[in-house]
Structure formats: structure tokens, C-alpha cells
Amino acid sequence: AGDQITPANYDLISTEGESVTLSCTYDTSSDNIDLHWYRHYPNQAPQFILWKGARSDTTEYIPDKRYKSTTSKTSTKLIIQQLILSDTALYYCTTD
């Protein structure tokens, strides 16, 4: 079987200025994996937010400090802090 990644949240509602946490679980045989998050607005290409290594990979690239990410052996979380209206979008998590 190949790698699998599954969202843990489908619809989240929050308030401007608050924080929200999105989660995905994943299953892969690799011990060196990067997990990527993207934001998608209607009729636009997905926009890269960040990537963070998991398992034996401890590297990360998070250009916007409003975003944070945590990873475990089977899941990743995206934390969006100080929400603004333009954070309203569809979010994707992917493996490398």
C-alpha cells in the first residue's frame, strides 16, 4: 500500500483574533518525511503555507510566523494564530 494522509477536521468555525488548529493523520513506511500545508481559495491555485519534517526529519520552513506546525509519528497539526478574514479557505495537508 502507498502513503495515505487523511484530514481530521472538515469544517471549522472560529473568530477573528482567535487561533484554530487543523489536523491530518498520515500513514507511511518512510522514516524521513516532510508534511506540507496549503491554503486554497476558490478559482485560484493552492498557496504554500509551510512544511515541517516528521519522524527522523526535524527541519521546517515556516515563512509566516502566524502559522505553527507540530508533527508526530502519525499526525500533523497546523495552528493559525490571530485569525483574519482572509484565513477563510480550504486547507490541504500533503506528504512530500
TrEMBL record:
Transmembrane segments: none annotated. Gene3D superfamilies: Immunoglobulins (2.60.40.10). InterPro entries: Ig-like_dom (IPR007110), Ig-like_dom_sf (IPR036179), Ig-like_fold (IPR013783), Ig_V-set (IPR013106), TCR_variable_region (IPR051287). Pfam families: V-set (PF07686). Residues 7-96 form the Ig-like domain. One of its GO terms (cellular component) is T cell receptor complex. GO terms for biological process: adaptive immune response. SUPFAM superfamilies: Immunoglobulin (SSF48726). The keyword Iron does not apply. Keywords: Adaptive immunity, Immunity, Immunoglobulin domain, Receptor, Signal, T cell receptor. The keyword Signal applies. This is Ig-like domain-containing protein.
